[in-house]
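Record format v2
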Amino acid sequence: MNGKWTTADGAPLFGLLAEFADVDALIEGAEKVRDAGYTKWDAHTPFPVHGLDDAMGIRHTKLSYLVFAAGVFGVFAGLGLQWWTNTVDYSLILSGKPFFALPANIPVLFEVMVLFAAAAAFVGMLAFNNLPLWYHSLFKSRRFLRATNDRFFISIEARDPKFDPRATRALLESLRGAAVEEVEE
Amino acid sequence: MNERGGYWRSLGELAGTPAFRLKLEREFAEGAVDAPGAFTRRRFLQLMGASVALAGFSGCRWPKEKIVPYAHRPEGWVPGEALRFATSGELRGCARGLLATSVDGRPIKIDGNENDPIGRGASSAIDQASVLDLYDPDRTRTPIWREGRSERSVVWGDFLAWTEDLVRDLRATRGARLAFLSEPTGSECVARLRRRLAAELPEALWFEYDPLSMDHAREGLRIAFGKPLRAHLDLASAAIVFSLDADLLDDDPAALLHARELAAARRIEEGRTNRLYVVESVPCTTGAKADHRLSLPPRAIAPFALAVLHELVFAHELEAPDRLREILRAREASDPPARAFAKALAEDLAANRGRSAIAAGYRQPPAAHAAAHLMNDLLGNIGRTVAYTADPDPERPNHFDAIRSLAKELEAGRVETLVVLGGNPAYDAPADLGFADLLARVPHAVHLSSHRNETSLLAEWQIPRAHFLESWDLSRAHDGTLLARQPLIEPLYGGRTDAELLAVFLDGRAAASGHDLAREAFGAFVSGEADFEKSWRRLLHDGVLGGSARPKVDVSFQAGPTADSLEQISHIKDHAGENGLEAVFLRDASVHDGRFANNAWLQETPDPMTKLTWDNAALVGPSTARALGVETEDVVRLSINGRAIEIAAYVLPGVAAGTIALPLGYGRTRAGRVGNGDGFDVYPLRASGAPYFAFGAAIERTGRRYPLAATEEHHLIDPRATRERERRVGSLVREVEADEYLRNPAKAMHAEEVHHPPLVSLFPPHSYDGHRWGMAIDLDACTGCNACVVACQAENNIPVVGKKQVRNQREMHWIRIDRSFRGDPDSPEIVHQPVACVHCENAPCEQVCPVAATVHTSEGLNAMVYNRCIGTRYCSNNCPYKVRRFNFFNYRKNLEPVEKMAMNPEVTVRSRGVMEKCTFCVQRIEAARIVAKNENRPLRDGEIVPACAASCPARAIVFGDLNDPESRVAKLHGEARAYGMLAELNVRPRTAYLARVRNRNERLAKREKEGHEPIHG
Amino acid sequence: MSRSTAEAVPALDERIRGEPLVAGGETLASVTETVCAIVEKPRPPRAWYVAFGISAMLAGLLFAMIGYLLIEGTGVWGINVPVGWGFDITNFVFWVGIGHAGTLISAILFLFRQKWRTSINRFAEAMTIFAVLCAGLFPAIHVGRAWVEYWMFPIPNNLSMWPNFRSPLLWDVFAVSTYMIVSLLFWYMGMIPDLATLRDRARTRIRRFFYGLFSLGWRGSNRQWHRYERAYLLLAALATPLVLSVHSVVSFDFAVSQVPGWHTTIFPPYFVAGAIFGGFAMVLLLIVPSREWFGLKNLITMRHLENMTKIVLATGSMVGYAYLIEIFIAWYSGNSLERFTFMNRALGPYAWAFWTMVSCNVILPQLFWFKRFRRSIPAILLVAIGVNIGMWFERYVIIVTSLSRDFLPSSWGHFTPTWVDLCTLLGSFGLFFTLFLLFLRFLPIVAIAEVKSVMPEAKLDRDVHHGQGDYHGDIPRQHERQFGGPETNR
């Protein structure tokens, strides 16, 4: 990240963190920050808050397409596996049945499809969220510990082009019920 | 140990002195009898050596007995290649020509010899199992000398040393105070030595005893014709066969021949039918085959013969001497069913004069036999369907008299040295003689025995007896044909044959070897030295001396004596009831008289009727059981005039009312690890006066139960299931009425068809070009004799699992014989049906296996891939025939090395956790294919014979290529009688069953129809 | 999709109005506290120790039995020919069945917007995981040669052979392992935010390390929540057909074979209903004591229990219906083999098992027609236990009676379990409860984040456009009614 800004005691600045007591305040704040045109910022809540996505103007995730693709791939993988192993590579006369007959292959095909899609959903989610990420500057903030309990936060990163320690701080402090603090890199 | 034996054998001959004895004690007193199965590498090389020599002469065996390990593979011998040699086994004094298959010097399989007059290539379950006896680890391994309490295992030389003075004295006293007790034997060597014995030691006594003696027949013939004879039936040309309690098809020296001829004479497709009437007290295989079967208590059977005679003489005007007419006048059968039966039977017999055969069972009193042959005489069968040959030993007293008089001799202390050649009198002699105690009192008893059994224990000396596969001998078949017996392996434990031991008492150390004795004996059959070697070779190769059968003798009927004997039986009341139950002593299909008690294959073979394994039981009919309040597995206390035993009961449909059947041969205490303690010893109830039937048997329940291991009707307790079984059997084991079938085969077959929707498959059937192996089993021929079951076990290394496992239905037999009853439980119709894997083309087992461990070969065999199987058992669950067998444990964990020698190297030994089943003997298919390839010609029909088919006496099983329209199997599949069991499942079985034909006499048929409505599928 | 599905099940909505999902005026903080306290307490209640001790002992027994089995061979069980499957596959189907309620509650109730699921789904999912674990054990040990089991997977091996994809048993392998994996993902993913909560509350280094490790650095960022919700929805949508497929496939083991009594088209739906039935019974069995011990009565209210009893009643009746249809068809088909099989089930040597099954599965649950029993803890426990017994016997009856008397009377037989069979069954329960008790001790047993999201503090009454994911679905109007104010908040 860029070391453009520093905290009072000269440490590189990660960004500013505003704490809110309830959902309404958070959402109002989020709308303001969004309208102020910030891009590198985020809201933190102990549970998913509804309407916050709009309030922050988050674009719809692509995860669904990934999962769909994985599912389709699973179908062909499942079919291919069965066809190749039982028909091409090592075909055997079993119960006088043909070497390849779709009906018998449906169940496995289906399971493989589900398996691939599910794996994609999970892995994709982590990837898009770039998790796992065991270190993050926000974890330095004592208050932030309550982000997983009963408090709501907005963080604006120093990397944000529109970021200016004073202006941004002013904006955050202007928000209802916000307590603002600096978070260092 | 064996080479040690050999070593001492030679040195022992120098040192038969007391000093040597001491030395011997020091060296071998403790643990001289090696741990069972002490089987060394060296020994194995010797065996390999044997096969070298074997290969030397095709078909004949090396003339020297000493064999040596080889260093270089001799020319013309291929390791692992199976060689077959003609030899012969023996039971009840009748030899059976056999072919023994030997691999690398190990005999591993016994089959019938095509040249054998009786077997004609077939063999019995007992023949098949005999190879296991050879490798029985419980066999006695050295001569054993008992001095008071202490036994020590010694060597042959010591015995020779011991006999030295004895032989000298015997020569002096002309054999006084010497007695021999022998089993019946057809051995020419023994016969020859006996003639010498009579000449050189005239004082010596000779007794012959067989606990299952057939002498009643002999006596009966003596009455009828004035001299002891052997009767021979020609069932092939008999239109009517009438058996009076005779198990012609299984328990008879000529059983194999009978089974084959009876079946051949019933091929309805060739317009041939015969009719079999059986009157018996306990169901047997012959009764099961009967077109009409009548259950009568034993005592009523001889009178029934008179009832039939009565009908013949009075209803059908057969002329008979007046005195007979007098006796027969008032001899109608008293109870209605029996009378109806007698009338119908007599009618048939009268209508087929000279084309019927009548026989009585050996359990029946001589008079019954006389009556039977009287019938043959009156009906003019003699010379047509019945022939007689001279008795090999006319002077000998009958067995029970013999053993009685021997007992007298012993009691009187007139015997100093008793030589018991084989047998086990201490166990199986009639109880009233107290033979064991007498034997214990004999100063010097010598017992020639393969096992240290009840008798050997009481003898001073026990000499290991050679197995027939270790012996040289010449022996006579039932019809007198001379058979060769040649060893396939050097005696594993230095065993001796009867003749070899006998010779010692004549010549001491100078006694000739079995080989020489055999050659000497053969001398009498060839004229001149010139071609001796040639014909000797020929004999060893063929196993049979052609044209040596005893000549048929003309007989003239003796009215007087016959009339006297018939008069005796004419006083017997022909209905049961008063003075309690009547006991019948049976030969057991597995252990015979007890001699095979240590043979695990036979022990695990289900009895043809009861399906019991590992045990015998007191068999009672359903109604009698109900009257007595006895159920299967109840332990009952059974007493017959004073003597009593405890035995488990088994309720068997078809046992005559008021009758209790007791199979002999169980409850052995000294049989070996397999036979000890199996079942119950019923000999204690058997008196020399009434060896087969005993009146006044009393039963009381002890309240205890004894677990029996039957392979069928396990837990078939609820009536619903029994009814369902009744309902299904008709469609599974089809039957047709002969006349209906002849009128309209298709219609006759349709009667019991299962009605099912048309069989359509989602997919086109798989096409098999090239071979398409298939099988056909003719239910009309099958007698349920179990030969195929044991043959399969021997061929395919099928493990024995033991009673506990069988009880939990884990028996491993690849082919089983389903036995089912129909109709009135007290006199049911009985059917047998061999079931092995039918190699379905749409095999249900295959698609469900997750690892494709069971698949179809390109020739349509349903192959089981052992090394791929992971043992889910799903295939077995989905197999409608339940012919798959699972290795729940490692059943071979405790095999002795010597037992492993019996394994067939061509067949994989299955591991634990693996499924197995019938392969159609794929190894034999491949073997034949290789031969054909080498001779580059196509496989011929009949060239491939699975083990079951090879053994089958009735030739009921046919195997071949269904794609070859000319093949026998294809033809049979085409016959109207052919049907596929459970074909309605659209599994398309490759095994076709040929419906059984019932050739009923409509006079009786009507009665039976009323008895029970026919079962429908 | 949200609304449509929401309206698709008005009947359930009606009921939901009744009573709050979170009682006793809990707050966000107090919910966190209640749930986390269970894990953070230095020592659990004594009852836990007792239960754990017993379960662990039984689990030990299980492994002893497995060892014995592997050394001696499958012969140590009572199975034979004809009855090739006995307790082994019975237990397998039983446990797989139990394994169904979890994902069902989580996924299907989720898609149907059943908010009341939030307090119990974590339980149910955990139960699924452990049940499937137990289930998976049995196919693994029931084979004759367990050491070559890997041949059932399409792995190149020394025989260069492949598994046979026509075999229902192989379908099982795929179905069950897929189900195991997906359920695990579903469970773990749902737990990530709660693990983060525990991480942030952690006092000791070890806790911080492990919870930190497994919470993957979750920051509750809304951008993360957004994708998380979507992923969760997708998983739910995938898991739902999966649940149905798995037990259908299990039922194919029987339906696809041709044994009379197995070869039946009704099996898939019948098995699925049975699975849900048994599964819910097991959830009840687990949840009732847990909420006692860990003071979760406010999160898992009587209403949750009642809803579950209703599902038990419903599915139980389906199962009963299936029994009837089976018998009817056996008669109606005119197939004498089928007829006999069912007569034999009801009146043959295994009649006792059949009637145990019927009375436990069909008769007993009828209690739940009455509110009194639906809300009485003893009644619930009684039925829950009864149903579990009944469902085990259902599988036993299907497998053993059908095999013991199939086509050829000559090979009819009888199955008698050995002591090894019994100990193995007992041991599998030991393993299951051991794992479950460990779960109770070390993981958030209630989905904290989810519960919070249905609390007043979530302010779902705001009249704004709703989020994409509909993590827990929302029906605002109803929320007003529900959480209008403190007075409704009894």
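Chain A has a mean pLDDT of 88.
The CA atoms of residues 29 and 165 of chain A lie 18 Å apart.
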